[in-house]
């Protein structure tokens, strides 16, 4: 009897999970670039539409290549079910709107990825959903924010851009006691280092654009959770609002998963070295890296993450110094993307977080001196040299 794929180690799941070879016995996963599917008879079409025959109907509903990506990611996450979508934002938007309706209340951490913040602040109120933002590191604040109509809680940990850590298990307990479902945006942690479902979350979302592709090519997203909840909350909204991912992009992401473990572990090793190099340089006022003992939530990070990922942030004291650092880099690119094989650095307060009012930025501790860096796969010696010379110039 064949092994149960659930019994495999993560690295094996990432290579073999969801593999569904065609009759040709190809080595690599096939790309089914097709919009629709044909039926052998009118009766076969009837059975397919009735759901009595499990085959495919239309690629807005499901596609064989996309399904391979979904099964592989579900296996890695330890989730019963995964649905892939066209981008991380399609995943966040669907994950929230599938759980909420007019009159409901949402509680979210106040440090959120920019577009997630826009959905919660500007979009959901148009449909009668109110949101309370909380300091995500303060469990009392989460507790105080719960209301009888709180139906959903949104957690991002580590959060963009200052890598604040939320105690996911504790927030899940608070939310569940209030009857709310918990959605965790797990992009920064990656599925390699943090398992929100094991910590009690109901739904996990990814921008697969980031580490899962990891090579700067395609956009993608995913929603994961138990089959019953996913089916009830998301089946119809996914079918009828059309955030479907292109099968080609799903294939790129499927191949990205094969090297995810290797890439993210190497990037993380390098990030830990660079965090210390930066902290030891006189130009840096402070460094935020969840793996360092001086991170404000380092104990929570240690308890819920098995690795600290490749993102770090550091304060150079002023916008001028931060810009001199960025302009002084030779190897590291200036880019707001993250999780890529290429190292990238950005100035959040003039890029990713420029739409956030200054007063809100200061509330989350984002001063103009902060730089956020996504560490890539270049050699650690070359990166160290580049960063030190740019810090000298700052
Ligand atoms: C990038 C990102 C998103 C959005 O993903 P896209 O694929 O760009 O739509 C959402 N949340 C977090 C934390 C992200 O980093």
Give keywords:
binds pyridoxal-5'-phosphate, Aspartate Aminotransferase, domain 1, 2 domains, five-stranded mixed beta sheet, alpha/beta, 394 residues, Aspartate Aminotransferase, domain 2, globular
The CATH architecture term of the largest domain is 3-Layer(aba) Sandwich
Oligomer: single chain
Q: Any idea of the CATH class of the largest domain?
A: Alpha Beta
Number of helices: 14
> Helix and strand string, N-terminal first?
HHHEHEHEHEHEHEEHHEHEHEEHEH
Could you walk me through the main structural features you see in this protein, from its secondary elements to its overall organization?
The protein is of the alpha/beta class and 394 residues long. It has 2 domains: 249 residues, 3-Layer(aba) Sandwich (Aspartate Aminotransferase, domain 2); 134 residues, Alpha-Beta Complex (Aspartate Aminotransferase, domain 1). The protein contains 14 helices and 12 strands. The chain has a 7-stranded mixed β-sheet with strand order 1-7-6-5-4-2-3, with helices on both faces. A 5-stranded mixed β-sheet has the order 8-9-12-11-10. The longest helix has 33 residues. The chain starts with 9 loop residues before the first helix and ends with a helix. The structure holds pyridoxal-5'-phosphate (PLP).
């Amino acid at each position: 009897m064949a092994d149960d794929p659930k019994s495999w180690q993560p690295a094996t799941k990432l290579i073999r999970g969801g593999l569904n070879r065609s009759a040709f016995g190809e080595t690599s996963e096939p790309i089914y670039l097709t919009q629709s599917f044909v039926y052998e008879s009118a009766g076969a079409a009837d059975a397919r539409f009735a759901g009595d025959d499990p085959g495919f109907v239309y690629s807005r509903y499901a596609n064989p290549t996309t399904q391979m990506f979904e099964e592989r990611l579900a296996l890695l996450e330890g989730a019963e079910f995964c649905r892939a979508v066209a981008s991380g934002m399609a995943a966040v938007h669907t994950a929230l709107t599938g759980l909420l309706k007019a009159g409901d209340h949402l509680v979210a951490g106040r440090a959120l990825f920019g577009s997630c913040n826009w959905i919660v602040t500007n979009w959901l109120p148009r449909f009668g959903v109110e949101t309370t933002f909380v300091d995500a590191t303060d469990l009392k604040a989460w507790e105080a924010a719960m209301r009888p109509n709180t139906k959903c809680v949104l957690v991002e940990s580590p959060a963009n851009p200052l890598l604040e850590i939320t105690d996911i298990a504790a927030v899940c307990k608070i939310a569940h006691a209030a009857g709310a479902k918990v959605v965790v945006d797990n992009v920064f942690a990656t599925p390699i280092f943090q398992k929100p479902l094991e910590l009690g979350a109901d739904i996990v979302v990814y921008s697969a654009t980031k580490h899962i592709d990891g090579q700067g090519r395609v956009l993608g997203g995913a929603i994961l959770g138990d089959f019953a909840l996913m089916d009830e909350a998301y089946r119809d909204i996914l079918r009828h609002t059309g955030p479907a991912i292109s099968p080609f992009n799903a294939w790129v992401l499927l191949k990205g998963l094969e090297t995810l473990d290797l890439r993210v572990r190497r990037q993380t090793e390098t990030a830990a070295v660079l965090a210390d190099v930066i902290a030891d340089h006189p130009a840096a006022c402070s460094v935020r890296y969840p793996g360092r003992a001086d991170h404000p939530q380092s104990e929570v990070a240690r308890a819920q993450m098995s690795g600290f990922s490749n993102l770090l942030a550091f304060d150079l004291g002023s916008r001028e110094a931060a810009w001199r650092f960025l302009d002084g880099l030779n190897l590291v690119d200036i880019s707001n993307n993250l999780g890529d094989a290429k190292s990238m650095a950005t100035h959040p307060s003039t890029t990713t977080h420029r739409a956030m009012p200054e007063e809100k930025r200061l509330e989350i501790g984002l001063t103009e001196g902060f730089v956020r860096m996504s560490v890539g796969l270049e050699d650690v010696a070359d990166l160290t040299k580049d960063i030190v010379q740019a810090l000298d110039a700052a």
